[in-house]
Amino acid sequence: MFKLRFPEPDLRDWASRYPSADEVSVVEVLAPRARSRGFLTRSEFLAMCRWKTPRSHPICRRNSESLVRESTRVALSARNDELKIGVLRVLAGVEWSTASVILHLCDRARYPILDFRALWTLGFRKAPPYTFYFWRRYTRFVRDLARRNGCTMRDVDRALWQYSKERQDGASLRASAGSRGGTGG
Questions:
Q1: Model pTM above 0.70
Q2: Does residue 1 form part of some domain?
Q3: CA atoms within 13 A on the CB side of 176
């Protein structure tokens, strides 16, 4: 189902090419705070949503502080993966990709970001319909890829995203993005 478009030993090289300057505040400041606290504040949530998919930000703003705190607290403390991803999708403007960002950055377990660029790098011409079953298979594949290569989940995500950014042609990129309505890293 998943087939990496470049040799696995090149993961670190592709990750090093990722422009990480735009993610410093989200990845290095907000995410560790939320992880240690066990929930996101509304402002942290909105910053993560804006980083992942700026177009959904106006919809994400509809969520109250208490709904953001409670749903992210449940997601980050749950042991069941279906509950983790599902409770985040209760939030306005949050679908699979944005929910996966929150888990990727804030959960103590290792979760990948579900993104059309990463999927293209793993052999998909366009993103398939997202389901829990698909997300679980994707998560297992990316965890195994990281483990086999001694990489962090963040490094694998950066590598998958950057390879697509540099190699995916404009026509297939538009078709992929249009099929699910999301962009961003």
A1: yes
A2: no
A3: 23
Two structure tokens written together for 113: 């970001």
**Mean pLDDT in consecutive groups of 10 residues from the start of the chain, 185 residues:** 97 92 76 93 93 90 98 97 97 97 94 96 94 97 98 95 88 47 37
Per-residue burial over 103-123, b = 16 or more CB atoms within 10 Å of its CB, e = otherwise:
bbbbbeebbbbbbbbbbbbbe
Considering its fold, how many domains does the chain have in total?
1
What string of DSSP letters covers 145-162? HHHHHT--HHHHHHHHHH
Give residue 67's domain range.
8-180
Inside any domain, residue 72: yes
- For residue 16, is it within any domain? yes
Alpha-carbon distance of 129 to 117, in angstroms, equals 15
DSSP letter (8 states) at residue 113: -
Contact 145, 156 (CB under 8 A): yes
Of the candidates 67, 107, 69, which has an alpha carbon nearest to the alpha carbon of residue 90? 67
| List of residues 6+ apart from 120 with CB closer than 8 A | 5, 164, 168, 172, 173, 176
Distance CA(12)–CA(156), nearest Å, equals 8
Is 185 within a domain? no
Q: How far is CA 123 from the centre of its chain?
A: 18
